[in-house]
Amino acid sequence: MSKLLEVKNLKTSFKTHIGDVQSVRGVSFHLNKGEALGVVGESGCGKSVTMMTIMRLLGENAKIEAETITFDDKDITKPTEKLMQTIRGNDMSMIFQDPMTSLNPLFTIGDQLTEHLIKHKKISKKEAKEKAIKMLDMVGIPSPEKRLKQYPHEFSGGMRQRVMIAMSLICEPKLIIADEPTTALDVTIQAQILDLMKDLKEKLDTSIILITHDLGVVADLCSRINVMYGGLIVEEGTTEDIFYRGRHPYTWGLLRSVPNPKSELKEKLIPIEGQPPDLLKPPVGCPFTARCDYAMKICKEKQPPLFEIAEGHRAACWLCHKNAPKVESPIRREE
Ligand code: SF4
Question: Does domain 3-222 have CATH number 1.20.1730.10?
Answer without folding.
Answer: no
